[in-house]
Amino acid sequence: MKISGPARYKLSFDAKKFTVKCPKGTDKFCSPATSKLPKLYIVSINKKPVYVGVTKQSMRNRLRYGFTASGRGGYYGYAWRREFTEATIDIWCHENGRDTLDIETVEAEVVFLIRSAGQWPPYQTEIHFHSPTQMHREVATAIWRTVTKNGQRET
Length: 155
Description:
Layout: E1 3-13, E2 18-21, E3 39-45, E4 48-55, H1 59-68, E5 86-94, H2 101-116, H3 134-149
Antiparallel strand pairs: 1-2, 1-5, 3-4, 3-5
């Protein structure tokens, strides 16, 4: 499993739309966030992870879906978008992955590590549970170390 990242972006938003600022100063996502490769992303508010997700879509499309959902089919979108106006999003890409099984397994392990440090991410709405291997646990631990090193820690 080859993971790259994180790529860090700043989000500004209201309940229906968002703007993104990348480290290069542009207002759009760059590769690999634009690819169709499996990605894990962590949304943090006030330096605390509030949501962990996975997608194969480009990040702009995934976020757009989460910001425009209105309950049709039972999906109401990201709950955190209704309560805040700014967030940080860190994105890791599974460079040699074709399906989402491995990255979903890492997602569950990262959420478990967040919970082990305090509480569940407050806006986590689902987790994909699969039997992890040592590799999944090691990748999740490396991601969690990066998040805590960057001053983001669940309390």
